[in-house]
Specification:
mainly alpha, globular
Length: 210
């Protein structure tokens, strides 16, 4: 079927929605930027995004052979991925919608230290590996490229989107913080955005073809 660019576009939109939805990583970038300065938030962003390359590599070489050898196992991976995303939607639904920004100072570290910390935070987080396993296989976009190359394309696109979104959070941190404090209902809107995104991606993965 060649390359399906609609799937790639859908993947980019889904990645952007996930990056925008509040989570520990982008909140940490926001707090570093607010308390210590934009360049510190950008250093943290660079470290977090770089860590994704490790998870992409594990996924590309660990899952590609499985996909190639067994349609049943590939379907099982997609089914697990969809169920995991539905579970994440349920967890968000049960969580507090209030966005809490820390009033305390975030400890100040050097730019290199923040890059290293962001990288380690990402690489050593098993939830990222599980999420990549759940998210990526449903977005393979063609039969003219090897699965390894496709996973790397998806990984690099995910990293680029996260870099742009997190970078904007760092640069616009003061305005974002002011807006959050002035709009108490924002947390509820973002909560439902996360739920819709997780369910939507889960359904897309479940219904996608190999």
């Amino acid at each position: 079927m060649g390359l399906n660019y609609e799937i790639l576009f859908t993947f980019i939109i889904a990645s952007a929605a996930l990056a925008i939805a509040p989570g520990p990583d982008n909140i940490y970038v926001l707090m570093q930027s607010i308390t210590n300065g934009k360049k510190y938030g950008l250093a943290t962003t660079a470290g977090l995004v770089s860590g994704c390359l490790v998870h992409t590599t594990l996924l590309a070489f660990g899952v590609s052979a499985i996909i190639k050898d067994s349609d049943k196992i590939f379907f099982a991976i997609k089914f697990f991925g969809a169920m995991y995303l539905f579970y994440l939607a349920y967890k968000v639904f049960k969580s507090d919608a209030h966005l809490q920004l820390s009033n305390g100072e975030v400890p100040k570290k050097g730019l290199g230290q923040l890059f290293k910390q962001g990288f380690i935070m990402n690489v050593l987080n098993p939830k990222v590996t599980i999420f990549f396993l759940a998210f990526f296989p449903g977005f393979l976009f063609g039969d003219s490229l090897s699965h390894i190359i496709q996973f790397y394309v998806l990984g690099l696109l995910f990293m680029l989107v996260a870099l742009i979104v997190f970078g904007l959070i760092a640069i616009l941190s003061a305005s974002i913080s002011t807006y959050i404090k002035a709009h108490a209902k924002l947390g509820s809107s973002l909560k439902w955005l996360q739920i819709v995104v997780f369910i939507g991606i889960g359904l897309f993965i479940l219904l996608s073809n190999k």
